[in-house]
Amino acid sequence: MIDLKNLQGADLTTELCGIKLKSPFILSSGPLTYAAEGIIRAYEYGCGAVVTKTIRHQAAINPVHHIGKINKDSLINCEKWADSAPEVWFEREIPMAKKAGVVVIASVGHTLPEAEDLVKPCEDAGADFIELVSYTEDTLLPMLDAALKRVKIPVLCKLSGNWPDPVGTAKKALEMGASGITAIDSIGPTLKIDIKNARPEMMSKNGYGWLSGGAIRPIALRINSEIARNGCTNLVGTGGVTCAEDAVEYLMVGCNAVGVHSIAVLKGVEYFAKLNHDLARLLAQLGYKDIPSVRGVALPNFPKEEIVAQLEFHYEPYYAPCQEACPAGVDVPLYIDQIRKGQYTEAYKTISVANPFPAICGRVCDHPCESKCRRATIDDAIQIRLLKRTAADQTFASCGDSLPLPAMEPANGKKVAIVGAGPAGLSAAYYLAKKGYRVKVYEALPVAGGMLAVGIPDYRLPKEPVRKEIARLEKMGVEIRTGVKVGSDVSLEKLRQEYDSVLFAVGAHGNKPLGIPGEDLSGVLSGVSFLQDVNLGRAGGLHGKKVVVIGGGNVAIDAARSALRLGAGRVTVAYRRTEEEMPAYAEEVAHAREEGVSFVFLAGPARIEGTGKAEKFYYDPMKLGEKDNTGRRKPVKTGEPAVAIEADIIIVATGQVVDAPFLPATYDAKSGLTSITGVFVAGDCVTGPASVIKAIAAGREAAATIDKYLGGTGLVMDAYGVKRTRAVDVVIAEDGTRKAEAELLTVERRIPGFAEVELGLTEKSAREEANRCLHCGCTNCQRCVAACAYKARKLEFPIMTVDKELCRHCGACVSVCPTGALTAVVVNPQAGSQGDGH
Fold it and tell me: Taking the model in full, what pTM does it have?
């Protein structure tokens, strides 16, 4: 199920013939719309409307076998019309679907008598539209005339791509009064042979079938663009929509909505939820706020005559989207290649070039790299984070505490003080120590690691990986002093006197108050402080207590799951938006629910009541209003009475703030420079709470800035000493290969106690997962060279040269590049044909 109102991104509501649809996706007529139950299910998963199976005088009986698969996204079928009598549709299916709120499009065919007899009963049953379908134009237009005389609801005409002139038919139908056009129906007849049995796969009379799905999209898209350019204002583009990108193409050529069916047969009707989710985000990324703003934007850009242009080529031999997405810029394909070969310590070294904490990030990184993984266009993204963990765990197993150290430059005699031993401060220390600086880190907490050590419970990040990777820094000469508070135990002025430079990299350990009555009562705890107590062994038992956690981020989920492990009898998370809006990692929310945490959504904190001690938490029921600057819809009170939840302990986890009054008053957020000479800032104290990998990147950037300030080059990161293997065989099965899943501790073994829940990948699974990597960047496959008929291109990896005298700018080389390492942009476009067209 999906709540379309809560999607992040563009507004997906659209209009067709003046009727509002909650989504542009329409489930077209087919095997999923035989009855009301299927129609309703599609609507619940996000369809804006649903088209019935075609209603005719007589019910159909389908041959067996009547649907087959063509490649991964297309079907061949000899399926007939509805297998229920018309009366069943009028008395059960349409009324039942309407009662559930569905926008129903009644498909009626295929003859004039059927249009005369069936369209009015469809309207009387509650249908919102009539869609006429016919085998020929000669039949369709008389059917349209009959329908228009009998019903007042909009009438759509569905066209076939097999007709000699479907665009001309659309024009005639609109001139006659059709409300809109649906284009196109499946294409055929076509044939597929069952090679095992040496016979046609379809069991129709002659063995032929009709083609639908991705294979027909280019044809359908062209026909829809021509219909739209002829002035059609109510158009449903149908044929081959398999993903959000396909839908955008139809919208851009003028469609109000897009019909989908084949991919829903192949992937399940639940796939509509993903289509809507992806479309909302994609439109927002492209700069469109809603469907009207994208509809038809491509139409003015169709060339009136041939465009001749030169291409400017760009060759990036090592480009990979995952590496580009990583805030620290880790060479992901290289270390995955090393894991594929079983070279785990080398992989650990590779990761450490850009990220000193592979074991830590292998457990708690938010992995933005995976969202850009090109493997997801085939099946599932690579489990990049878990492979990082594999490299670290295998290195720990073989090296123990003697982890590999980076190459160290000789001591340069200069000293740097770092305030804060969190990921930003420790990363800066790592890179400065490598450059020969004497580094001392001051930490107010009794342990090093910042939020890594006191903010993330052991079940997600055990102490041992943190200890080992911090000990690695100490072996590089970094001195860490814990339990020292700058401002009281040591002054900034003293640090400035003793060190050549000072970096403040304190985390966001302060608590953000709710601002509601009763939050000062006993039993009301801050999420950050609670987790600190848990991690430092200072938290008492919560045996049988009722706990409410207020908030929706990772701190809230960690607090809730920790409370369970401390013996709480009931734990409830109250969040003011919906689950889809929660900033917490989805997998952590899922684990919390498995373990018994309850959730109350759209619950705005109102007050806490009790006699000296918290006894009840009251929340105001909320609804989602307009979107804020984060793209999420704002929670707004519904006006209903506040609801109470009994609670012995209330944990407030609604945000973190930096609590460091000793920080310089003014600083430049981009460079980290402060108003005090030689003093710099980095990490959460500049950006606010951020992910671990962003803190690591910020720490390295700060190290580079300090190095340059103290007379160095500002280059603190080593170049990668090795390059990844080229032209690797990649696992791509016909139906794709699913990603490897981490082993998890069973729910029964998780509580009580803080044993690590995610156990990582087995070595076998990790190497199989690594073999799924597409090795983005140039693989030296030489396809671009082979594709050039003019012998203009030469590739001696990693150098590519182009003979400009021979190059004809045809772009064949770009079209065959399998990884996107070779791209081109159009320069100096000129209209007009060239010679004889060759």
Answer: 0.69
